[in-house]
Design goal:
single chain; alpha+beta; 6-stranded mixed beta sheet; 4-stranded mixed beta sheet; 18 helices; 37% helix; DNA-binding; transferase; EC 2.7.7.7
Length: 482
Amino acid sequence: VEPEEEAGRDEEEDAAKAMDRAEAGEAGCSRDAPVPEEPGGVPWVHGQVVPEGGSSSRVIVHVDLDCFYAQVEMISNPELKGKPLGVQQKYLVVTCNYEARKLGVKKLMTVRDAKEKCPQLVLVNGEDLTRYREMSYKVTELLEEFSPVVERLGFDENFVDLTEMVEKRRQQLQSGELSALTVWGHVYNDQYVNLHDILHVRLLIGSQIAAEMREAMYNQLGLTGCAGVASNKLLAKLVSGVFKPNQQTVLLPESSQVLIQSLNHVKEMPGIGYKTTKRLEALGIRSVHDLQTFSSKILEKELGISVAQRIQKLSFGEDNSPVTPSGPPQSFSEEDSFKKCSSEVEAKNKIEELLASLLNRVCQDGRKPHTIRLIIRRYSPENHCSRESRQCPIPSHVIQKLGTGNYDVMTPMVDILMKLFRNMVNVKMPFHLTLLSVCLCNLKALTTAKKGTIDYYLTPSLSTTSHSGKRSFKMKDTHVED
DNA sequence: TGGGGTTAT
DNA sequence: ATAACCC
């Protein structure tokens, strides 16, 4: 692993060190004390539900690549290394390397602002995500070699549940090796490590595995990134960003309150997005402490019981959501945004482009999409962001032709898409679109479902439910005559 | 704001 | 089909 000190700290504030250490609880305290119980009788250890005996706290790592698109570009073209580099999509610099950040370029800055701040900025176009997507999956696959339970978050982040791997290594430890156990990377809040504390030992082993993961990413793929090790996804994600770039941090349980209190606003809590932040602000909730102490009953009335209970737990650093293996993608989509599209012919041309790329991707994947969707964004001065969509099943004879390069699959699919288009857009009236997107989803493996097998009865096209005419599946798809 | 993704309702 | 969340 690259020396931590080499990376440089840049503009990232070390909020943690500025925090009041007193709130950390007793560093190095023993965990022999009884686990506190919730009213329901379920024991909790810092956000982790413990089924029986209190022996199953998880070890989770969050791996976060440094300025991922810029790294991929610098690997593609090494001459870019050392120069301030921005990745451009339309008129935005969506990400940039650390050279550029030092010169004042920020993520999602407009090209104009970025060039103004940094005239030497080198820009590369990043609208085609192909190489980023490919590298992204290489990272996930590398991590899956350590443990198969890997959850992707975007193209540049992964969670891995290390619990089992850590426990195996811990049991393999010979006497004497335990006392030689050391942490890899930073310990959040400079907390003391207690090797008599089994939770500390597990997390240290987690930090060792995290270091091995980053080492493998660098040696095999040439990529650097950060890692955070903690007892749940929320805390792992928050702690991974404490030392950037190319560094790692482990959070010991006694410092979890310091970590979440280091957030300046509830909007910084992963899981609390734009809308929820606005609704929380309307209730006078701004800080994590505000959310912790707000009436649960009122919060449930305002946000619904599901969101309320989930985010209030998050505010205490509690997150029992599992690391869900992502596996292959659930959908493939391609989109293009533009200033104006106001004719059907124009739309058709753009749709054809999007579809052509998608068919290549879906062909490489091997699975077959059974649903197609068209998404548009209409121009409106204020209300941005809102999109409309129409979807329908892909006719089975089209699906069958998908893998075979022989037949023209474009024509029938473009026909379907244009029907969906006219279903959304009254082409006899003037219109102004700013985005078109095509999505292929409902992917199914081409399993040879044999009669009498589970697959047979789970395959709608084969099982009796589809013959009976009374389908038990919700059919919200737009009907399109073929 | 871009070009993607996911799950819940 | 939309709305929320994530990057």
